Write a sequence for this structure.
């Protein structure tokens, strides 16, 4: 059994969205999870263990492994090539600084970390987790040691934001399957950057899922939130309970972003030279 198609990441670059879309395509077999981690962390479990994830695949279906951490693994390219030499490899290029902040916020909102993004240049564990996945040239060069350039598709995150159909068309064309396919996930978002999951946040959303609107309004009134019945989620107090998204919306300070742009500049140049592309928008210091 060979696996035909891989999406190697990195995290926060539409891997879950692609997984959800391709799971609807009859020509593609996707495993029940989008994080198998066989070629980086579970290789010791053996090929038989890996094959159980594709047990239901039909002979004519394309087997798809969407593990988004393969891009960072020093061992994954050689292991994938040894067992699947004809595989097609996809990855998505996203502004490395925006990707790093999105990665940070994804962990922060789940309560997995207590660090702040400003510590990224003070703590190498944070730097290696958040910034290094966006040093794409180094990762792509590792895969080019084992795969022909035609076997690697470098998608652009900006394409997804501007034109979801074109982004999906590129994937389908690369996989050599019906590129007229339009999944129901086409205009949906996966792992969207929502509010941090505080106790109040979870309690309120739990209420929203189980309590009738009239009862929610009554609760809000008892909390003396006078306008809650009309605009529950737009009130400052309720908004902080529901979303707690202010930090994400504020983003990275211009001072830190400028420092990170300088740090990433050699990596951006290296990627531009490798792929013969230009990425001036990655160098902007946004307000």
């Amino acid at each position: 059994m060979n696996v035909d198609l891989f999406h190697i990441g990195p995290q926060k670059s539409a891997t879950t969205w692609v997984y959800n879309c391709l799971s609807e395509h009859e020509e593609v077999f996707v495993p029940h999870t989008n994080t198998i981690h066989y070629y980086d962390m579970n290789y010791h479990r053996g090929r038989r263990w890996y094959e159980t994830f594709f047990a239901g695949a039909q002979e004519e279906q394309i087997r798809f492994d969407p593990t988004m951490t393969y891009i960072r693994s020093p061992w994954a390219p050689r292991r994938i090539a040894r067992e699947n030499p004809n595989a097609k490899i996809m990855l998505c290029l996203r502004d490395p600084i925006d990707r790093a902040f999105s990665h940070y916020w994804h962990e922060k909102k789940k309560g997995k970390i207590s660090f702040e993004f400003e510590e990224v240049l003070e703590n190498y564990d944070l730097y290696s987790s958040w910034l290094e996945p966006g040093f794409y040239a180094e990762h792509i060069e590792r895969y080019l040691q084992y795969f022909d350039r035609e076997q690697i598709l470098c998608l652009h995150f900006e394409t997804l934001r501007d034109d979801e159909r074109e982004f999906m068309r590129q994937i389908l064309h690369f996989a050599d399957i019906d590129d007229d396919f339009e999944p129901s996930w086409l205009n949906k978002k996966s792992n969207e950057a929502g509010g941090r999951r505080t106790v109040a946040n979870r309690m309120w959303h739990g209420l929203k899922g189980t309590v009738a609107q009239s009862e929610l309004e009554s609760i809000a009134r008892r909390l003396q939130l006078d306008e809650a019945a009309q605009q529950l989620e737009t009130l400052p107090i309720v908004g902080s309970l529901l979303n707690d998204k202010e930090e994400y919306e504020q983003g990275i300070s211009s001072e830190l972003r400028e420092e990170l742009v300088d740090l990433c500049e050699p990596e951006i140049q290296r990627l531009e030279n490798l792929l013969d592309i230009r990425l001036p928008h990655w160098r902007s210091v946004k307000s």
